[in-house]
Amino acid sequence: MRGTTAALALAAGIAFAGCAGTDQVGTGGPPAEAPVWRVGDRWVYRITDGFRAPLSWNETHEVVSVAPGVITIRVTEAGPSARGPRTEIWTRPGLLAAGPVFDNETRRFTPPVAIYAFPMSPGQRWGGWVDNFNETAQQAAQINRTVSVGNWTRVETAAGTFDALPLRVLMRLDDQEFWRGPTEANYLVHYAPAAGAMVRADKNAHFVQSGRGGFGAVTTQRAQVELTSYTRATP
To answer: pTM here?
Structure first.
């Protein structure tokens, strides 16, 4: 796990846990249909993660192969905080078979996890317990992941202004230890049909520490993700 500066403040954890309740659940509007991903589709994101001295890097997501039931996306990073490349496997747009749902941890999901449930409409909800194998930790377990879709909104990014659906994603991971609870993640993700992908995300996560090391909430992620450019391949 790539943690940011730890903040041992219980009040911060309480504020974090409560922010999900402030969202307005969507009430109507047209659905977002599943995109068509083609070899050569490419999205570039600017990412910062941290507090006083945040980490920063750029991520390029590129579709490198498309076959029935298997879409492969290569992810590469550049910048002062860049890490190595990784590969994501999708059975179709929206269904992730192998890839990260938190930070850059590669997990394999059986069955695939619904990152987007197309056609996707305001007011839609899905999720629950998901079986996965964490390749970083080399263990099989379950995470709990739920998604609620809000109303259409306009989102400004470096790549342009988009009509987007906001998705509130709440996750409880499987990384608890005797001295700490599981990571609790709270994300706000904006999906834009025009880009065929996410265009902005705010990601926050923490766990609660207990025992001899102290008590309180430890912040492990406070990231902003923004689309800076994209290219859609022609049929």
So the answer is: 0.88
